[in-house]
Amino acid sequence: MRKKILLVAAFILISMILSCSNTSVGKSKFSPYYFYTDTNKYLFEISRYELSKLVTFDRLTYKGSYLDNRAMTKEDLENIKDNRNVSNIPSIVVPQVGFTTESLNMCLYPTHHTIHRGNEKFDSNQYTRISAFAPVFVLHKSKDKEFYYIMTEFMRGWVPVSKIKIYSQVAFSGIQQMPFIRVIKDNITIGSVKYGIGDKVPLLSQDDDKAVVLTPDGSYTAVLKDGSFVIGNAVYDEELMKAMAESQLNNPYDWGGKAGFRDCSAYVRDLWRVFGADIPRSSGLQKLVGKKLIDAPKSEEEFYAVLRNAKPYRTLIFFKGHVIMYGGMENDDYIIYHAVNSLVNDKGKKVLIAKVAKNKLREERFINIWKRVIRVSEISPLISPELPKEPELIEITNIMDKISKIGSYEKEMAEQNIQNKIKK
Questions:
Q1: What is the pTM of this model?
Q2: What's the CA gap between 376 and 137, in Å, rounded?
Q3: Residue-wise pLDDT tens digits, 125-159
Q4: For the segment 378-387, what is each residue's pLDDT rounded down to a tens digit?
Q5: Residue 153 in contact with residue 37, Cβ under 8 Å?
Q6: Rg (alpha carbons) of the chain, rounded to whole number
C-alpha cells in the first residue's frame, strides 16, 4: 500500500513539473523585470509526452466558427487536428535549430485556412507574427509536410516549412553570439528581406558608411547607414521612443499581426526590443513586467494623479486584454499611444478606431478609461546595453566556418552535458 502511495505521489509530482515546464517563463539577463520563454531545455531533446502536451494544449471549437467563408464542420476540425501528426511523434525528439527567412505568421493549427467567428480580420488560428531572422527550435512536422511546429523565445506554434532555414547547432549558437544591428524603422529591406522596428540582424563588419550583415540564407549583404538602424541595442532615449511610436500612427490595427501590422501588445513589444528589452508578446504577461505604479484605481483622481507623476513612454496602462503606452502631457491633456480596434468614450459609446492611434483623453472624451484600468506599470530601460561578447567582427571570407568557430565553445559544453547525462 505504501509503495502504491509513493508511486502515485511521484507520478503527480512529475506531471506537475512537466505541466509547469510547458509554459515556463524565466528572467532574462537584461533586468529582473523582463521575462522570456525558456527555450534552452529544447536544445538537446524533448519527450513525446511533453511535446504532445504542447502541440495539443490550445484548442478551437468548430461550433459557431467559420472556415474561410463557410460554416466549419466537425469533420473540418478533425482533419486539421489530424494534420498535427501527434501519433508520429517519436519517443524522444531531438530538435533542429534554424532561423526564419522572412517575417511570417505562427498559427495554432497547421493549416492555411482562416478560422474565425464571423469576422475574418480576427483569425482564431493566428497566434502572432514572427520577425525575419528569428531563432527557432524545430520540434515536429505536420502530416502533410508543409508545417513545422516550432518554439521561439516568446511563443510556440505552426509555421510554413518553406520559411525556415535549418542550421547546425554550432552555427546556430555562433550566429546568436555575433554583434548585430537593431532596426528602428518599419519596412526596411536588407538584401531581399523586409525588416521592421525591433528586428535584429547579425553584423559581419562595418565602416563609416555601411554595415555588412548576414542574411538568413547564410550569405551576406551591405546596407547603408541611413538612420534605419543602430549598432547593437539602442541606449534608451525618450525622443527615439516617441519618434518610433509616432512613425506607426494610422497603421491598421492587426489582430495577431496576420497582415504584417501590429496589435496592442506587438506595438509595445517591438518598440522595447530596440532597447534590448525582449518583453513578452501578450498584454497579460506584459502586465507582469516592470515596476507596478497602481492596480485598479479606485477613483478618477487617484488614476490621474499617478499619470501626472508617471514617466512618458515608459509607463504602460493595462485593461483586460489591452495595453496602452502613456505619452505624457500636451497642453494640459493626457496623451496615450496604442494599437486598438475600438475604445469606449465618456458617453458609453464604442468608438471604432481600428489603427495605431495617438489619443488625447480630455479632448476626445476618453477620461473615463480609468474605470477599466487593471494596472499601471513602469518599464525600467537598459542604461547602457552592450553588444554580445565577441572580440572582433567577422571577416567576409569563409563566413559559416568562422561562425561555427564562435559557437564551438557551446558545442563542447553541449557534448559535455550529454556525456554527464549518460553517466548518470
A1: 0.84
A2: 34
A3: 999 999 999 999 999 999 999 999 999 988 899 99
A4: 988 754 444 4
A5: yes
A6: 23
- The sign one gets for the Cα dihedral 13, 17, 20, 22 is negative
| CB-based contact 157:149 (threshold 8 Å) | yes
Q: How far apart are CA 188 and CA 191, in angstroms?
A: 10
Among residues 358, 340, 147, the alpha carbon closest in space to that of 247 is found at: 358
Question: Quick one: cell of 424?
Answer: 548518470
The mean pLDDT of 236-263, rounded to a whole number, is 96
Residue 36, pLDDT score? 38
Strand 70-71: give its sheet, edge to edge: 70-71, 66-67, 115-116
Q: What is the pLDDT of residues 96-115, one digit of tens each?
A: 999 999 999 999 999 999 99
Residues 344-356 as b/e (b if ≥16 CB within 10 A, e otherwise) read eeeeeeeeeeebb
